Task: inverse folding
């Protein structure tokens, strides 16, 4: 059931995106580009922060492994 | 007849207030979406450091927002006080987007700013995140409606002149909102705000790294800001190109002035990398040209060409001659709105009505205008070339510089070595003014390039102003500049104080391992993991 709800939500988002693209594409695409672009910029920036955390955790784990190896 | 000194002072006053206002606006536009990105990481990962980061940058956003609102309010009043004929002439069109901006976007933004600031302990993380996104959306929608109104001044579509009411009337709202100029200008301006926020966050983070303070906050903020910035700068450049492409059609005089293009050249046209344009002699001194580039830039082909000032002046003179019967027919229609001869004359020449108004500055009765007066009015149709030429190049140079900065910053942060690059970090701090200067230069290009019109091709600037006295204008101009300078000083003082103080816990990473009581259990588990 959870998978179905998630599938429905994502399909709805995809459908809305396509409808918006069709409507706005006829009138000129820049507003649509702004919507898509802003979402992309925000999400990539957010992923960048999470990636830094992952890098730090990996570096800490490697340091710990090296320390354990020496002992 | 208007006093040209009053017109110039009205222009100066609006330019001063707009330029002051736009020192605050871009940071608001961009910072809201940066806050949304930061808070998204907090809600998704549950790591408290991201809440601290969001709250810290949120505080700086709030300082900027409060002072930005204060400087923006007066601008809308100026349309009524200093530009009364303009307001009367195009109020039907111009008023609609401004009203929507106030009622929809600004109310949305202002309401949710309160929830964003005071809602941290009252809302669930997901709810608060939604509020932050709504603030971001509201501030950018606010900019959208203002820029739709401005786009009408640059490329008046969706409206027509009614000779009976003697005013412009809106006849196609969709055409107004979806005009090419409105779309390209909104996206260009909004994303320029993202770049401003990214440079600001990167610069302040770099300062913390140089001081070895709040390292956890600074490293994360820097990483996010350069990613945010590199994509945004690419977007600004793309949209700048689109705006130039749109402008080549809609405002050829602006484009010719931007490029210092006095004489029409055959394709492929060279690009003036550097020149010292002389308005009086209509020539450039000390030109440094790059072959082929201008054709590619403005027409996206090697065979395209655009008219230079020489051709544009000729066209303006022809249109002035065509507009004179339209203006004279208005006089007849004001005496008898049902005069069929006058109406027929107006309908035949109405496309050149604005150009007829241009010569009215020199000949009150336009039907008596001499060839010299028409030539002078045609010369007036070209904006000040040197100002346009250099404002445009400053903006572009700063934009390319910021792109290079972000790319380098991205490489360093992805390698996780940025905190050791002290020269780069010092440079990052010095980069903070760059986007503000670029935005100001961009507005100079947009607005000086529209001259001599308030509504391009329809209403000359000299006709648009109110009939105040010089003394009144000087007094109010000095007042605005003084008050706004105080605002800037207050903003800088509050910003510097908040930055020096840092996050509220005084460290920026002290709570990293404490967990967060306001998070749901599932998120706490994630944070602990």
Result:
């Amino acid at each position: 059931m959870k998978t179905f709800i998630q599938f429905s939500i994502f399909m709805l988002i995809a459908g809305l995106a396509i409808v918006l693209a069709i409507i706005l594409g006829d009138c000129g695409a820049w507003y649509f580009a702004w919507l898509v672009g802003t979402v992309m910029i925000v999400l990539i920036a957010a992923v960048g922060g999470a990636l830094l955390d992952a890098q730090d955790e990996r570096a800490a784990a490697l340091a710990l492994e090296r320390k354990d190896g020496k002992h | 007849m208007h006093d040209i000194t009053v017109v110039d002072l009205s222009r100066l006053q609006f330019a001063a207030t707009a330029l002051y206002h736009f020192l605050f606006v871009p940071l608001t536009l961009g910072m809201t979406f940066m806050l949304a990105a930061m808070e998204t990481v907090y809600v998704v990962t549950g790591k408290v450091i991201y809440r601290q980061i969001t709250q810290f940058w949120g505080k700086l956003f709030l300082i900027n927002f409060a002072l930005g609102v204060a400087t923006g309010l007066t601008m809308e009043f100026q349309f009524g006080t200093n530009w009364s004929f303009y307001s009367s002439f195009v109020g039907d069109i111009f008023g609609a987007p401004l009203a929507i901006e106030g009622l929809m976007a600004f109310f949305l933004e202002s309401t949710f700013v309160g929830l964003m600031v005071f809602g941290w302990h009252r809302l669930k993380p997901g709810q608060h995140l939604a509020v932050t996104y709504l603030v971001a959306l509201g501030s950018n929608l606010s900019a959208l409606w203002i820029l739709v109104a401005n786009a009408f001044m640059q490329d008046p579509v969706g409206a027509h002149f009614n000779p009976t009411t003697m005013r412009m009337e809106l006849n196609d709202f969709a055409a107004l909102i979806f005009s090419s100029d409105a779309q390209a200008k909104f996206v260009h301006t909004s994303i320029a705000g993202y770049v401003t926020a990214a440079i600001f966050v990167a610069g302040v983070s770099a300062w913390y790294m140089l001081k070895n303070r709040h390292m956890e906050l600074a490293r994360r903020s820097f990483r996010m800001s350069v990613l945010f910035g590199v994509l945004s700068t690419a977007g600004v450049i793309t949209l700048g190109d689109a705006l130039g492409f749109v402008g080549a059609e809609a405002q050829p005089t602006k484009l010719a002035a931007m490029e210092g293009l006095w004489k029409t050249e055959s394709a492929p046209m060279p690009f003036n990398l550097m020149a010292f344009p002389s308005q009086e002699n209509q020539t450039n001194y000390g030109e440094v040209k790059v072959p082929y580039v201008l054709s590619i830039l403005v027409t996206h082909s090697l065979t395209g060409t655009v008219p230079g000032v020489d051709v544009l002046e000729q066209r303006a003179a022809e249109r002035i001659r065509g507009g004179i019967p339209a203006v004279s027919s208005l006089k007849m229609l004001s005496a008898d709105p049902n005069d069929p001869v006058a109406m027929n004359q107006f309908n035949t020449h109405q496309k050149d009505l604005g150009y007829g108004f241009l010569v009215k500055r020199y000949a009150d009765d336009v039907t008596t205008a001499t060839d010299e007066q028409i030539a002078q009015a045609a010369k007036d149709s070209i904006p000040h070339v040197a100002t346009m030429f250099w404002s445009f190049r400053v903006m572009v140079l700063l934009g390319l510089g910021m792109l290079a900065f972000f790319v380098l910053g991205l490489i360093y942060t992805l390698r996780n070595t940025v905190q050791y690059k002290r020269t780069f970090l010092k440079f990052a701090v010095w980069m903070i003014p760059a986007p503000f200067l670029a935005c100001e230069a961009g507005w100079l290009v947009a607005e000086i390039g529209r001259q001599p019109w308030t509504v391009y091709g329809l209403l000359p600037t000299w006709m648009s102003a109110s009939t105040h006295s010089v003394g009144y204008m000087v007094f109010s101009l000095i007042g605005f500049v003084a008050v706004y300078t105080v605002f800037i000083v207050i903003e800088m003082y509050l910003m510097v104080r908040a930055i020096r103080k840092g996050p509220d816990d005084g460290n920026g990473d002290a709570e990293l391992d404490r967990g967060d009581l306001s998070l749901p259990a599932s998120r706490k588990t994630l944070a602990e993991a």
